[in-house]
Amino acid sequence: MRYSGIYELELGEGNNIMPWLSALLWLPLLGTLLICFMPRQQEKLIKGTALVVALIDLFLSLVLYFSYDNRLAGFQFVEKATWMSSPAISYHLGVDGISLPMVILTTFIFVCAILASWNIKHRTKEYFLLVTILETAVLGVFVSLDLFLFFLFWELELIPMYFLIGIWGSERREYAAMKFIIYTMAGSAFMLAGFLAMYFLAPSPTFDLVDLSRAGFAPQVQALLFILLFLGFGVKLPVFPFHTWLPDAHVEAPAPISMILAGVLLKMGGYGLIRINAGLLPEGLKAFIPLLATLAVINVIYGAYVAMGQKDLKTMIAMSSVSHMGFVLLPIAALTPVALNGAVLEMFAHGTVSGLLFFLIGLLYERAHTRQIPELEGGLVAQIPRMGVAFIMASMASLGLPGMSQFIAEFMVFLGSYPVLQVPTIIAVFGIVLTAGYMLWMVKRIFYGPLNPRWSHLTDMGQVYEYIPLVVLMGLTIVVGVYPALITDWSHPSLMALLR
Amino acid sequence: MFTAGAMLATLLAVDLGDCLKGVNFLFEFGKIAFFTLVGVLLVGLIYFLNWFLSPKTVPTQLRNTAYECGDPPVGSGWARYHLSYYPFALLFVVFDVEAIFLFAWVAAFKPLGLFGLIEVMIFILMLVAGLVYAWRKGVLKWV
Amino acid sequence: MALVNYLVIGAIVFSIGAFGVLTRRNVVFVFMCLELMFTGVGITLVAFSRYFAPDLAVGYIFVIFMLTVAAAETALGLGIFLAVQRKHGTISTDEFSNLKG
Amino acid sequence: MNWWLLTPEIIITVTALLVLVLDFMLPESNRREGLGTVGVLGLVVALLASFRLLGVEDNLFNGVFVVDRLAVAFKIIFISGALLVYLLIISSLERLPGRRGEFFWLVLTALLGMMVTAASRELVTIYVGIELISLSFYALVGYRRDDKNATEAALKYFILGSFAIGLWLYGAALVYGLTGQTDLIEIAKMVDSGSSPLLLIGLFLLIVGFGFKMGLAPFHMWVPDAYQEAPTPVTAFLAVGSKAAAFAVFVRVMLTGFHSLAATWAPWIGFAAAVTMTWGNAAALRQTNIKRMLAYSGVAHAGYALVGVASASAVGSQAVTFYLFAYLFATLGAFAVVVAFSNLTGSDLISDYAGLHWRNPFLALGLTLCLLSLAGIPPLAGFFGKFYLFWGAIQQGGWLLVLVIIAAINSAISLYYYVNVIRVMYFIQPSVEQPVTSPLLVNITLVVALAGIALAAFYFQPVLAGIELAGL
Amino acid sequence: MWEFFYAPDQWAYGIYKAVETWGQSVGIPVSLIQLLLLIPVAVILLAFIFLNVMFLTWMERKVAGHIQVRYGPMRTGWHGLMQPVADAVKLLFKEPIALPGVDRFIYFLSPMFMFTMAMMVFIVIPFSPGWVVASLDYGLLFIFAVSGMSSFFVLAGGWCSNNKWSLLGAMRTVAQVIGYEVPLILSALGVALLAGSLNLTDIVASQKGMWNIVKQPLGFILFLMASLAEANRGPFDLEEAEQELVGGYLTEYSGMPFAMFYLGEYTHLLASGAIITTLFLGGWQGPLLPPIIWFLIKCYAVIFIFMWIRWTYPRIRVDHLLQFNWKFVLPLALVNLGITSLVLVL
């Protein structure tokens, strides 16, 4: 089977007859169905099912990763079937070097999140039901090559997320859940309008990404489409004026869900921006480069600045996510291969690091029942050394310590962006400094100094299910940090094709 | 005088030209208007005569009392009437309105033929079903 | 008599009816005004039917149907009105304010 | 004359008469089951007859009565809606006072009116059809005639409905006078050759009249009252049937009769759509009674559906039909839950739905899916409906893009009040632990509705193919 | 004179032509002449009605008297023939009293229209060939329209009197009149079917060989009964059941308004006779005698039957009256119509 990919390149060897992507995509939903028919009391069984499903998915994604031919830029493992003829919608799946890292990130984070949810007591069945649905939805976004399908999964992700925040969250969960869903819905409404417009403006009406990439929209049209889609993806990323849902959602969500939110869901926005806005509408993007650069810088600086003032650990990490997502937006404004490569890497790195941070905060909260930095203040590293070390390492990763993945990512972003956008890049670099500032200060306040007697009862990590996510996510951070080619070699050809 | 007459003629009928040859629809209705006027004027005249000729008495309390079999009147004169009248009024509306269609059907009976007959029969059948329904539901009972 | 005269009469009757429906507070008057509206329409239809399309009796047929249905409608309306009047003890629309928002 | 084209109507008429007669023939003890069974059987047969007519393009009585894809599709909508409503009626009849037989009968006459309305291409027939619907519903809304609020709602509904019909009639009279025709095809021929200001006034009045029936803002004042006070199954039927019928005929009048004036009326419709959806949503946000909330959301949905009319294209008309399909199933499902809940608790307050998940998970899940479908969340039917509406509108381009964006924002806002109900059901612990039992028939209704919602994605294509408007 | 009796249409046309020729010679437009000619027509018609009604009041009293084995009025004129004149003069000199609680406008208006509407029936009745004031194509419809109107004025008269008896009497009357209107119309439709027209002239013409009473015996009986009820004649005279209701809707009426109601009722009676004659008894048709004489003979025969029934049968109770209508007369009328149309089609 020969398939002419999005960038008119030939298929790699990884392609074969098995519908790998469909298997990967629908497996979690199969898990949902299984869990549906399990009795409510069998919590172990339910958790086990969810975990096994996630693990198989992880395995499948790794198979995909290794059998992907990274010399080629086009889509691989493509599946295509007509769904509707008018409007022309097809069931079209495929991965390339941009989406594959995201897929792997997703499967990793979900395994970790399910392990992190091992202590969920309240309405376990529903919880894992929703988490498995969520996994299908998120994977669907990353592997769809049909805009309609893409949108379907994009929206599908909202409902489980709403319930997960709304039922298992903390005090202001309902408000946060509602805010989350309304913001995203409003954004996706514009996105849908954009997709529809794209459909009709294409020479032959289609939702197919591959066909659309050859459409060659007029620059003004591209600008209009760009605005519509940017509103959709920008809310998710989140871009500065639309970011206010994020602190609420992150803070109120339970720790595993915060992991998923920060680790994966934000990447959907970035992925959309790179894949569709940058890939399909480069002419439109050019008109908005100053705006994008400005927004990126605001994201970086404002996010970091706000994070600095936070007392709540989760809010702080949430705002740091806003700040880091600025580093994803900046390369999109710069549109150079190196910078975009950095952006993809940054998404992957931030996914693992912020997932790790939220995981650790969850563990800490489980024990201390507070997330307020002033309350936690004082020498915890003495009481809980293993957790403390992990926390410090994660913080270092987050502030971009060399040897960790996020350093490489941010380095590439600056390297790639500087030639095109000098001033914004220079300002953005100061973001790193701010990040280092609040991260180190937080670590210092919580973990160093004399032990606060209030926390003398805290216990350290002990369970296996607490170690595995830590080891996996930290491992990913360090491995990618040491050998970033694991991601960049995969994404580079596709990005080159994208920018051509 | 002629002008007034001509105006009246215009008001009553569009064109009186050859009304005796064929029936002029609007003129026929003009006659109706004319006769209504005549009737009203005539009665008005009689009223006037009556008023002119009759004696005028001074109204007294007793004379101004409504007649209720010689007893002093009690309560409002506009008594509440029984609701039982209402279903009959409804039935009347149904059947009287039905008659409009029957008139139309009768006027075009010959050209419509059997087809029209069947349609009207279906129509009447439904109305009869309604009547039977009302009957069985006890609407026709005078409570 | 010109068509426009009939149309104007129809329009006036219709407008009086519509105005009455919107401003009258007594339900019985509202019903009467509704009938006026229908009458105005009837005049218009008949006038049009007579002047513009003398071959086609559609206008007359329309009027017959309209009268019929309007009769049924009024009958039903009076039924509802009686129920309301029995429950509320008033016939002024101002008093009907149990349902709001 | 192809009399068999009329089979669904004839079957419904016969069923109605049969129900009427059986009402006093059957003994009181098994009257409910008897009438219900006869009605359901008649409806099923009529539904099958309608399916047989799919794909037929024909007309009767010189085009007064047409059978085309649009008409048949709408007939299927109405009959299936009536069928589900019948199930709801049977299961909630104990709670209704008075002569119950009339209830069964009036639903059938309303249905007949809807079918006639959807199939007529001529102003007189349209008028008769609309009035048949309206009269049945006036009676049904005021059915609880010993209830102060119910009679009041019925009176309001009656006065506004009659007023609307008056305006509509005047519009029809003007259109008739200026074109000399009442057949929409003939009208279209006349309109093609030129229009006049008076004709536009007539058209405007027609739109206003339909607007009342469709419950468009600002003519929607009757909607919440009537919905709240009518017996719940009637509300369900009012919400789906009456509205859909008005839309069916509206689409036909606008697209068949006045298509050449589309440039003139489409902006009016677009404006009305924007106002309606915004107003409906804004009002729905404040509601505490679920029936009222659904009423206002119905107003908003009328606004969305109007987008399809505003696109003035064949795709637009298909989109309206499909959207109403989706709306029908979602609304009926939601009302099925409301019926089950209020039968047990006697309450329609959203706050009383607290913790429904614990009291009856199936009902809670069903209501959730229906509400999400109404909100337009994929992969449920509501999403496809909206998608297709927007698709049709964007195809036309121009100012319709703005309308689509307004609609899109509105549907995001609407999520708030739908999700609020879901929130209450799932997030708040119930104050009463007593389980909510749902009768078998309600469950059947809900399952059918959910199937309709869920399978829309797979049957999108065939359904769309079934609902093309003839002659466009 | 022969022409006047046996060919009245030619006679009338001759007069019309003569006047028109004269008018044209003087220079009066034709349309105005036609209008002016309506005035003598109206005078003749009104004179006819007044004379007959006066005669009818006398006749009623005589018939009643003789049925009850007494003489009735005997003193004024030959066998009391001048009694109506005396009554009229007396009523003319009586004071029209309208009580303070009365709605004066409607109080005076309703008898006025009651009479006018009853009179209107006559303008479509063909008294003789060509002698019809307005030959409406929908004459039958017109008759029902105007005679149905009378119930309005009865109700208005009863309502405006501000008296319980009046209102109750009026309500009963309306319930009865509207109820019997339906079989009245339905049985008349049978006749219209036979004639194939709603024009009364055509209906009369269609009875040339055989009167409708032969073809429509059931219709005739039903129509007769319904007419009795329509005209508020006994045994259906519930409106003024003086034993129960004092004077029905007339309780508060006196003087000329009362007389007008009275006049209206007898006009209605006369109209009923005329309608039955036209519809069922072949109208003015008959051998030897002039058409107008035939018409009067038949009309008076019908009216005599009316009076006979009134003074022979006891009054029906109101519920029986209504049930009799809805459960017996109306279904029969429908059956009659169905059979008639079926026979005509087959």
UniProtKB/TrEMBL annotation, chain A:
Record localization: Endomembrane system; Membrane
InterPro entries, per database record: NADH4_N, NADH_Q_OxRdtase_chainM/4, NADH_UbQ_OxRdtase, ND/Mrp_TM
Endpoints of the signal sequence: none
Listed transmembrane segments: 20-38, 50-68, 88-115, 127-145, 151-168, 180-201, 221-243, 255-276, 288-308, 315-335, 347-366, 387-409, 421-443, 464-486
NADH:ubiquinone oxidoreductase chain 4 N-terminal domain location: 73-136
Record domain NADH:quinone oxidoreductase/Mrp antiporter transmembrane: where: 144-435
Keywords linked to the UniProt accession: Membrane, NAD, Translocase, Transmembrane, Transmembrane helix
Family: Belongs to the complex I subunit 4 family.
Record's protein name: Proton-translocating NAD(P)H-quinone oxidoreductase subunit M
Natural source organism: Calderihabitans maritimus
Automatic annotation (TrEMBL), chain B:
Membrane topology, record value: Multi-pass membrane protein
Record has Membrane as a keyword: yes
Gene3D superfamilies associated with the record: NADH:ubiquinone/plastoquinone oxidoreductase, chain 3 (1.20.58.1610)
Main enzyme class: translocase
Transmembrane segments: 32-53, 85-108, 114-135
InterPro entries: NAD(P)H_OxRDtase_bac/plastid, NADH_UbQ/plastoQ_OxRdtase_su3, NDAH_ubi_oxred_su3_sf
Protein keywords: Cell membrane, Membrane, NAD, Quinone, Translocase, Transmembrane, Transmembrane helix, Transport
Keyword Secreted applies: no
Entry GO terms, CC: NADH dehydrogenase complex; plasma membrane
Catalysed reactions, semicolon-separated: a quinone + NADH + 5 H(+)(in) = a quinol + NAD(+) + 4 H(+)(out)
Domain of life where this protein originates: Bacteria
One Gene Ontology MF term: NADH dehydrogenase (ubiquinone) activity
Compartments, as annotated in UniProt: Cell membrane; Membrane
EC number(s) from the headed UniProt entry: 7.1.1.-
Subunit relationships: NDH-1 is composed of 14 different subunits. Subunits NuoA, H, J, K, L, M, N constitute the membrane sector of the complex.
Family assignment from sequence similarity: Belongs to the complex I subunit 3 family.
Function in brief: NDH-1 shuttles electrons from NADH, via FMN and iron-sulfur (Fe-S) centers, to quinones in the respiratory chain. The immediate electron acceptor for the enzyme in this species is believed to be a menaquinone. Couples the redox reaction to proton translocation (for every two electrons transferred, four hydrogen ions are translocated across the cytoplasmic membrane), and thus conserves the redox energy in a proton gradient.
Protein name: NADH-quinone oxidoreductase subunit A
Lineage: Bacteria, Bacillati, Bacillota, Clostridia, Neomoorellales
From TrEMBL, chain C:
GO CC annotation, single: NADH dehydrogenase complex
Stored Pfam families: Oxidored_q2 (PF00420)
MF-aspect GO terms: NADH dehydrogenase (quinone) (non-electrogenic) activity; quinone binding
Transmembrane segments: 6-22, 29-52, 58-84
Predominant location category: membrane
This protein's UniProt keywords: Cell membrane, Membrane, NAD, Quinone, Translocase, Transmembrane, Transmembrane helix, Transport, Ubiquinone
EC identifiers of the protein: 7.1.1.-
Membrane topology: Multi-pass membrane protein
Record's catalysed reaction(s): a quinone + NADH + 5 H(+)(in) = a quinol + NAD(+) + 4 H(+)(out)
GO terms, biological process: ATP synthesis coupled electron transport
Location of the protein in the cell: Cell membrane; Membrane
Gene3D superfamilies with a match to the protein in the record: 1.10.287.3510
Xref: InterPro entries: NADH_UbQ_OxRdtase_chain4L/K, NUOK/Mnh_C1-like
Function per UniProt: NDH-1 shuttles electrons from NADH, via FMN and iron-sulfur (Fe-S) centers, to quinones in the respiratory chain. The immediate electron acceptor for the enzyme in this species is believed to be a menaquinone. Couples the redox reaction to proton translocation (for every two electrons transferred, four hydrogen ions are translocated across the cytoplasmic membrane), and thus conserves the redox energy in a proton gradient.
Subunit: NDH-1 is composed of 14 different subunits. Subunits NuoA, H, J, K, L, M, N constitute the membrane sector of the complex.
Family: Belongs to the complex I subunit 4L family.
PANTHER family: NADH-UBIQUINONE OXIDOREDUCTASE CHAIN 4L, NADH-UBIQUINONE OXIDOREDUCTASE SUBUNIT ND4L
Identification of the protein by name: NADH-quinone oxidoreductase subunit K
The species this protein was found in: Calderihabitans maritimus
Automatic annotation (TrEMBL), chain D:
Subunit structure: NDH-1 is composed of 14 different subunits. Subunits NuoA, H, J, K, L, M, N constitute the membrane sector of the complex.
HAMAP family reported in the protein's UniProt record: NDH1_NuoN_1 (MF_00445)
Coiled-coil intervals, chain numbering: none
Xref: InterPro entries: NADH-Q_OxRdtase_suN/2, ND/Mrp_TM
Phylogenetic classification of the source organism: Bacteria, Bacillati, Bacillota, Clostridia, Neomoorellales
Pfam family of the protein (one): Proton_antipo_M
Enzyme class: translocase
Membrane topology: Multi-pass membrane protein
Keywords: Cell membrane, Membrane, NAD, Quinone, Translocase, Transmembrane, Transmembrane helix, Transport
Coarse class of the protein's main subcellular location: membrane
Location within or outside the cell: Cell membrane; Endomembrane system; Membrane
Any one of the GO BP annotations: ATP synthesis coupled electron transport
Protein name as annotated: NADH-quinone oxidoreductase subunit N
Function text: NDH-1 shuttles electrons from NADH, via FMN and iron-sulfur (Fe-S) centers, to quinones in the respiratory chain. The immediate electron acceptor for the enzyme in this species is believed to be a menaquinone. Couples the redox reaction to proton translocation (for every two electrons transferred, four hydrogen ions are translocated across the cytoplasmic membrane), and thus conserves the redox energy in a proton gradient.
Keyword field contains rRNA processing: no
Residue ranges of the TM segments: 6-26, 38-55, 70-91, 103-120, 126-143, 155-178, 198-222, 234-255, 261-282, 294-316, 322-341, 362-385, 397-419, 440-460
Record carries keyword Ion transport: no
Annotated GO MF terms: NADH dehydrogenase (quinone) (non-electrogenic) activity; NADH dehydrogenase (ubiquinone) activity; quinone binding
Catalytic activity: a quinone + NADH + 5 H(+)(in) = a quinol + NAD(+) + 4 H(+)(out)
Annotated EC: 7.1.1.-
